[in-house]
Write a structure and sequence with these properties.
This protein starts with 24 loop residues before the first strand and ends with a helix. A hairpin with a 2-residue loop joins strand 1 and strand 2. The protein has a six-stranded mixed β-sheet with strand order 5-6-7-3-8-9, with helices on both faces. It has a three-stranded antiparallel β-sheet with strand order 2-1-4, with helices on one face. With 300 residues, it is an alpha/beta fold. It contains ten helices and nine strands. Helices cover 32% and strands 21% of the residues. Helix 3 crosses helix 4 and helix 4 runs antiparallel to helix 5.
Length: 300
């Protein structure tokens, strides 16, 4: 993730991410239903994740966000519907948003639930709400080495990803002694070692300060620039405004909005960031949007 770990010049929400040119569909869901006993968490949902996009999945508690993420990743329950993943040959190096969805031989789209865990992590990964759930070894170096071995990657691959995400993390440190941001970076590095095309994150900004959020926003933008599809479930409207190209809003397990982040967030009473609420009807989402508008006005 080139440049993802560079320190921010100051703590601020980035300007709203410009929408990229649409890439190929890397993961598609159709008619997905998820049930947990009597709870119908996801109801006939359709969704496409495209190369080069950061998509924010938003909705109130209980809307079905986490249930959907696990169903897309393949390990969660799915009562009905299909999930299809465009297989890409694993391997290092950027894809680029214009790269084809398939590299090497084309086996056609597959259901991630039918892949072995080792094969699945080469194509779609999920960082859960508690990143430490993925970390079980006594040192950062051990976690990185295990990630390399499990992904079949060259030794040092995970450590290199971690260094790009969060420079200076001590290899001999215990994961539980890391800051929230460093622990998230380690869990993300472990998941990225297999070079997956689709990255799913569940509430990744919980416990992060402004600097860590800015670093995470840059990291997600770098992943999208490499041609991956990124989907993050979040309640953090300010973070979504600064890094998402597209926003999908769920309510009671159904999609009620799906469109460019600027349009969806600015038009939402519940999910509009503070800047949009104050300056409506101007289509501004972040403080940097305001700075840019003022700078353009000053030059005219």
């Amino acid at each position: 993730v080139p440049g993802a770990g560079q320190a921010a010049a100051h703590d601020r929400t980035p300007a709203a991410a410009p929408a990229p040119a649409p890439g190929g569909t890397l993961l598609g869901a159709a008619g997905v239903h998820v049930r947990h006993g009597a709870v119908h968490a996801v109801r006939g949902l359709d969704l496409e994740l495209r190369a080069g996009e950061v998509v924010a999945l938003m909705g109130r508690n209980g809307a079905g966000k986490s249930s959907l993420l696990w169903a897309l990743q393949g390990q969660g329950p799915r009562a009905a519907g299909t999930v299809r993943l465009a297989l890409t040959a694993a391997g290092p190096g950027p894809r680029g948003p214009d790269a084809p969805a398939h590299r090497g031989s084309d086996p056609g789209p597959v259901d991630p639930a039918r892949l072995s865990p080792g094969e699945a992590r080469r194509h779609v990964v999920l960082v859960p709400q508690t990143p430490s759930d993925l970390l079980y070894l006594p040192t950062v170096a051990a976690e990185c080495a295990a990630a390399d071995a499990q992904a079949g990657a060259a030794p040092g691959t995970a450590a290199g990803v971690l260094e790009a995400l969060a420079p200076g993390v001590a290899p001999g440190g215990h994961p539980r002694d890391l800051s929230e941001g460093q622990r998230l970076a380690l869990a993300l590095a472990v998941q990225l070692t297999g070079d997956p095309a689709v990255v799913l994150l569940d509430e990744p900004t919980r416990g992060l300060d402004y600097a860590a959020k800015a670093a995470l926003a840059r990291a997600l933008g770098a992943l999208a620039a490499e041609g991956r599809a990124v989907l993050l479930a979040t309640h953090d409207v300010e973070f979504a405004a600064g890094c998402a190209h597209r926003v999908v809003v769920l309510a009671e397990g159904e999609v009620i909005a799906d469109g460019p982040a600027r349009a969806v967030l600015a038009g939402s009473a519940a999910f509009a960031p503070q800047v949009a609420k104050i300056l409506r009807p101007l289509p501004l989402l972040t403080v940097d949007d305001v700075r840019a508008r003022l700078a353009r006005a000053g030059r005219s």
